[in-house]
């Protein structure tokens, strides 16, 4: 028996060595072979990233990049663009460095590279992962054509506080929508295979809790309970990892006392061990050095040591890995296997991107248009159209003001954002060229020319001005018009995005005064808002006839707006964030945990409360309700929702936890309007009787339906383990016995509901 076993083992060994001899060495064996040849300095080099261009934060001194590349002491560069530029630096790595390991070029390709799409908050307003996927595919094609194979996107931080400037870079406040969007971006960037020449490695950032910065102030510490972290902030990261995201960026902020660049539990335990992430982690800009300011280390060497032990593989810009890691390994303060493992992770992604075999990109000789296809303008316009959210459309002379009809022969267009091309590109505009942007003014003037009408334009005021000098001209054009379109909002570059938190959520400068002056003329007013966050504009919401949240729609801003305002296409965008009435309500989001003393929302409270009560959870000077709720958006169609049908009145927690068939819930949605339209149908779930205090309701699904006038569609959702499990009192992710309410709804406030029970 033993002899037979030995013969068998010998044969297997022979067969496998035969195969090993004939097959190409696996990536793992290539990596191991490289590791055995690398000096300590060359290993560290793979973990070093510097910026070769403009900086996004405090840079840490000048570095002789070319020399360092030749010595194999840089693994990655950010902020290099252009095929000639990336090729030139790559050539140094591939011809002059000893081991010829290619550089990896990274960039913030956030909502397009040359073709600029709406900012991510606008992309999320489409509620359409397919569109997001297509847009990020285009971004990947354009950026990779210039040698960039890594984008620091998607930002999957949940943002529940509109004061935080970076809300604009993500998918808003909801973890479910955040997961869907995270997956769509990752798949779009990475394409069918990372090795394709037009794929970008995605980077889910910033792990974790960055959006929970206290007071909405950027870079501030966050304190988030383990349950809220698991339930709200981590799911989009997990979805990105499950979709194959090649990299993750650790955040700047301390979370529950531990700075993100030193958070071993987050990076090594949760990300790698629990979720099985096999890519690499890059620090945020200079964040390893910031461990000193954050007070968890006293010297830069210890900062480097803490970061690598916590699982940060690559050091973006601080230079501390370059300065200290090799010495720390030599002195035994960092075990060499820890360094080797980080190097393996980086090399694995370089191999996956096929950079060793294909390090260069073709250089286009002519000074031709850098963008690939004109059809990309069309996609940019479609995504922009779908991202616009119609917040208000009141009747004027017996009919809703929008769409604009032939009656409006003369239109006045006023406001500082009506013709501001650069602002339309939003924050992180990639290589987007303001000269290719079609503004609202240019698209509208073309439209008016075609229809034989007249456009009168006056800027009126600047975004952040105290001077009323321009008001007179704007008043004049308003008086001579049939309809006034006012384009107001924030400066994309200085008031939204990184380091642009605001303590006030009103219109900057004298824009509110300008708005009131224009409305006083008495003409019907359409207010278009270009903002990177929801603003608290209660006066506007009750005084203008129509109001559109446009975010920053990208290079096709003008055509997208004109086509929707005139009704060539219908509005279908819905809010991915709650719009507050007042800044004092922040953080304001639709899914807070249930309070024992709810105010005013009798339908959700138990037992129902009298809304006039004093000792309830509310402000004495502002209602709890938002100005516009999460999930809300109007259309030129009117969608009616039927009562909900539930496939079963009960199910058992035990069975659901074992993967039993989900309960099916459905409702019929009918387009009662006169125009075809798209409706985002939203599924919310609320539970009572659970071991922990859960949110009143949570988004658990959505579907976009397209309906002709008069048409109906039955929309069905599954409610099973995935929708019902939560982090319970023992911090186990399980379904518990509960009383469940489901809503199939047009937004997070309205819509029919139905109940079922989950027994033991
Ligand atoms: C930002 C990151 C960005 C990085 C590189 C940092 O300041 O926080 O989101 O990817 O800069 O530009």
Explain what this protein looks like in three dimensions.
With 760 residues, the protein is of the alpha/beta class. The protein folds into three domains: 2-106 and 201-209 and 216-350, Glycoside hydrolase, family 3, N-terminal domain (TIM Barrel); 376-565, Rossmann fold, CATH 3.40.50.1700; 637-759, Immunoglobulin-like (Sandwich). Helix content is 32%, strand content 18%. The protein has 25 helices and 29 strands. The structure holds beta-D-glucopyranose. Beta-D-glucopyranose binds at residues 56-57, 78, 108, 152, 205, 284-285, 498.
- The total tally of domains equals 3
Sheet having the most strands:
6 strands, mixed
For the record, the CATH architecture of the largest domain stands as Alpha-Beta Barrel
Note poorly predicted spans: 1-22, 54-62
Radius of gyration: 28 Å
Main β-sheet, spatial strand arrangement: 11-18-17-16-14-15
Q: What is the terminal-to-terminal distance?
A: 52 Å
Q: Ligands in the structure?
A: beta-D-glucopyranose
Beta-strand portion reads 15-25%
- CATH topology category name of the largest domain: TIM Barrel
């Amino acid at each position: 028996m033993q002899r037979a076993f030995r013969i068998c083992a010998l044969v297997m060994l022979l067969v496998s060595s035969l195969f090993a001899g004939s097959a190409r060495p696996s990536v793992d064996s290539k990596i191991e072979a490289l590791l055995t040849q690398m000096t300590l300095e060359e290993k560290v080099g793979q973990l070093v990233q510097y910026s070769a261009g403009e900086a996004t934060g405090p840079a840490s001194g000048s570095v002789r990049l070319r020399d360092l590349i030749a010595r194999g002491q840089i693994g990655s560069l950010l902020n290099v663009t252009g095929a000639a530029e990336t090729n030139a630096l790559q050539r140094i790595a591939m011809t002059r460095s000893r081991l010829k390991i290619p550089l990896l070029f990274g960039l913030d390709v956030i909502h397009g590279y040359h073709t600029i799409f709406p900012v991510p908050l606008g992309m999320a307003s489409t509620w359409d992962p397919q569109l997001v996927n297509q847009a990020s595919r285009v971004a990947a094609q354009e950026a990779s054509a210039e040698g960039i194979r890594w984008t620091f996107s998607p930002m999957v931080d949940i943002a529940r506080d509109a004061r935080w400037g970076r809300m604009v870079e993500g998918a808003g406040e909801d973890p479910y929508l955040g997961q869907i969007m995270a997956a769509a971006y990752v798949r779009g960037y990475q394409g069918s295979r990372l090795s394709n020449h037009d794929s970008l490695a995605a980077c889910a950032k910033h792990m974790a809790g960055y959006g929970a910065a206290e007071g909405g102030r950027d870079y501030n510490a966050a304190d988030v309970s383990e349950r809220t972290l698991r339930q709200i902030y981590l799911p989009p990261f997990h979805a990105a990892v499950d979709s194959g995201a090649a990299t993750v960026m650790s955040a700047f902020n301390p979370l529950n006392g531990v700075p993100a660049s030193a958070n071993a539990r987050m990076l090594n335990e949760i990300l790698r061990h629990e979720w099985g992430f096999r890519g690499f982690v890059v620090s945020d800009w200079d964040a390893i050095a910031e461990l000193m300011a954050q007070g968890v280390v006293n010297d830069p060497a210890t900062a480097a040591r803490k970061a690598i032990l916590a699982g940060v593989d690559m050091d973006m810009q601080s230079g501390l890995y370059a300065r200290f890691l090799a010495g720390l390994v030599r002195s035994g303060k960092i075990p060499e296997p820890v360094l080797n493992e980080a190097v393996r992770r980086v090399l694995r992604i370089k191999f996956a991107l096929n950079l060793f075999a294909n390090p260069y990109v073709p250089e286009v000789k002519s000074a031709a248009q850098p963008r690939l296809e004109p059809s990309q303008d069309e996609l940019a316009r479609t995504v922009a159209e779908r991202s616009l959210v119609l917040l208000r459309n009141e009747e004027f002379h017996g009919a809703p003001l929008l769409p604009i009809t032939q009656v409006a022969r003369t239109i006045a267009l006023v406001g500082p954002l009506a013709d501001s091309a650069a602002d339309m590109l939003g924050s992180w505009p990639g290589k987007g060229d303001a000269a290719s942007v079609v503004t609202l003014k240019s698209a509208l003037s073309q439209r008016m020319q075609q229809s034989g009408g007249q456009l009168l334009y006056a800027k009126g005021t600047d975004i952040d001005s105290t001077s009323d000098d321009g008001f007179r001209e704007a008043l004049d054009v308003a008086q001579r018009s049939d309809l006034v379109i006012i384009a107001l909002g924030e400066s994309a570059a200085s008031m939204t995005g990184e380091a642009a938190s605001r303590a006030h959520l009103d219109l900057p400068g004298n824009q509110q005064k300008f708005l009131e002056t224009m409305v006083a003329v008495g003409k019907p007013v359409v207010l278009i808002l270009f903002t990177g966050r929801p603003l608290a504009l209660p006066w506007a919401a009750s005084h203008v006839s129509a109001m559109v949240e446009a975010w920053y729609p990208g290079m096709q801003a003008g055509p997208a707006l004109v086509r929707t305002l005139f009704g060539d296409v219908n509005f279908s965008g819905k809010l991915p964030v709650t719009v507050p009435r007042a800044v004092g309500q922040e953080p304001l989001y639709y899914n807070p945990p249930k309070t024992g003393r709810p105010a005013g929302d009798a339908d959700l409270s138990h037992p129902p409360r009298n809304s006039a009560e004093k000792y309830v959870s509310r402000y004495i000077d502002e209602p709890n309700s938002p100005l516009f709720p999460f999930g809300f958006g109007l259309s030129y169609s009117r969608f009616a929702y039927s009562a909900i049908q539930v496939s079963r009145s009960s199910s058992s927690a035990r069975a659901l936890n074992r993967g039993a068939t989900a309960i099916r819930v459905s409702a019929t949605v009918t387009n009662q309007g006169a125009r075809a339209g798209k409706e985002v149908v939203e599924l919310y779930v609320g539970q009572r009787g659970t071991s922990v205090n859960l949110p009143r309701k949570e988004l658990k699904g959505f579907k976009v339906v397209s309906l002709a006038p008069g048409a109906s569609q039955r929309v069905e959702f599954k409610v099973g383990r995935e929708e019902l499990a939560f982090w319970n009192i023992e911090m186990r992710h399980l379904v518990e016995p509960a009383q469940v309410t489901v809503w199939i709804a047009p937004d997070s406030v309205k819509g029919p509901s139905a109940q079922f029970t989950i027994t033991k």
